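The instructor's notes for this session suggest beginning with a concrete chain rather than abstract definitions. Hand out the sequence below and ask the class to guess, before any prediction is shown, which regions might be ordered.
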Amino acid sequence: MLDTKTIKKITEFVYAKPRSINEIAALLDKNWRTADSYIDKISKELGTITSRTFRGGTRGALKIVYWNNVDKIHSSEFQERLFKRIESAKDKQDFSPFDIYQYVPDEQRYAFLEKQSENIITKKQNLVNLLRSAENQILIFSGNLTWVTARQGKENIITILEEAAERNISIKILCKVDVESIENIKKMLELNYKLKKELIEIRHAEQPFRAFVIDDKIARFKEIKSYEEKKKENNKMHIFYEIRDSEWIAWIQKIFWNLFRTSIKAEKRIKDIETIENIK
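After discussion, reveal the predicted structure:
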C-alpha cells in the first residue's frame, strides 16, 4: 500500500541519487511491478520524482527514477527572467505566451489566430483529440474553468475529461477558486465521486496562463489577441500557441508543479468561501 510513510521512504531514497526500479523494489521489499506503480502514482500526484526509460522496447530496458527539482526551474538566464515575470503575474493580461513561444525552435512550434465564442471549441483547435491523446497526465492552467461548459461539435469538453479519468489519466488543474468559479469547479470534482476515483485535483492559483499540457508531448496556450476588445463581445480573436519541444515542455511542467505544490486545495477554499453569510 502506498501510504505517506512509503512515499517519504521512496522520495528520500531517490533524492540522494537516481535509482533503478529494481533498487526501489529491493528497498521496499516489493516486486518491480508494485514499485513501478508506486513511482507512477507519486510522479502523477506530487510531481516530486520522475523517470526515464533507456533502451526501451528491448530486453535490456532500464528505467531510472530521479528527483524532479521543481525549485530549480530555469536552466538559462532568459528562462529565469521569464519565470520571475510569470511568478508575479496574476491575470492573463500580465503575461503573453508568445514570450515563451519566441524561444522555441521553429520546427517544434505552431501558432494560429482564430475567432472563438466563449463556449465553442472549433475544429481547427481540435481540443477533443488533443485531450484524448493523453496517456498519463493532463495539466491545466485555467482562469475560472469556463471550458467546463464548452463543447466541440456535439462533444462536451467535460465529458472528454471524464473519459480521460476513466482511463486513469491524472488531471491536475490550477485556477482561481472564487465565487465566480465555484459551480464549474464542483462539476469537475463531482467526476471523482461519479467514477469512484481521485484522479482530478484542483488547486487555487492566480496565474497568467490558459493552457493544456498533455503528457510530455505538447503544451497548448491560448490568449486573446487584444484585451482592448469590448468585454461584452462574445466572439473574440484568440491566438493559439502549440509547443512540442521536450525541454520547453519540461520547463512549463516545472512551473506548474512549483505553483501547484504551494497552492491550497479547491475543496478547502470552497468550504471557507461558503462560510461567508448569504454567499450561497
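Then share the key points. The chain has a mean pLDDT of 88. The CA atoms of residues 271 and 277 lie 12 Å apart.
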